[in-house]
């Protein structure tokens, strides 16, 4: 069967009475943020697969949609005056207590199944040195990219956040595979699997920091938001927000007012130059000039 996309997943949750109209989106977002699912259509990550396998081994209703649906039904009865809040809370506590007891009894089995699934990883390419598979192993905090041949130089740890897709391209600098990083709301980012490769550094460097001798580089927050940060962090904590959609490139120019690097943004056919310091007068002047030009044309 075809995988669920976001729209069909929310519709299925509605059919199964999982969550409410106002909470279904946030439930999916939490599953994404915690590394259980990724992409659209939605795919379970190795962590998500491990959790599913683990939960199915427990003698409990926790894996069945009926449990949540029953709670939602009882809450509706409270609003209709057919039952009381205290009665529903008491019943829910008893049920969740039984679930917790089942989980605690199976703790060691749960840990082992999740650990095994995490170590399975996903193949993202072939090692140029040994011809063996390169796998990416993800958890909530970081990813490990590793060749299956013991002792191979390909073993990198990084904090890449997003869906990792295999490509057929090789890095022109080091010859290692290039991968696509897909994040919500952002254009796919093509990068070398070696996080320290100059291919990545050159693409992500957006000029010099106006406050320190370091470079302003594109970074990703733990919540998947990109921003500019100084390479001399934590000595320098200078940061700038970046547009979350489209692509950005350093123009090679610097703002004449605050000396920050000027950035070019691209979304479809639209392109615009801006200073990353949103409070800078450069952006205000540019907006005014654009409005005057529009008025003159009109």
Automatic annotation (TrEMBL):
Keywords tagged on the record: Isomerase, Metal-binding, Zinc
The record, for PROSITE patterns, names: TOPO_IA_2
A GO molecular-function descriptor? DNA binding
Coiled coil ranges (UniProt) are none
**What are the Topo IA-type catalytic domain coordinates in residue numbering?**
1-100
Mind listing the GO biological process terms from this record?
Answer: DNA recombination; DNA repair; DNA topological change
* An annotated GO cellular component: chromosome
Q: Which InterPro entries match?
A: Topo_IA, Topo_IA_cen, Topo_IA_cen_sub1, Topo_IA_core_domain, Topo_IA_Znf
Q: What is this protein called?
A: DNA topoisomerase I
Q: Which organism is it from?
A: mine drainage metagenome
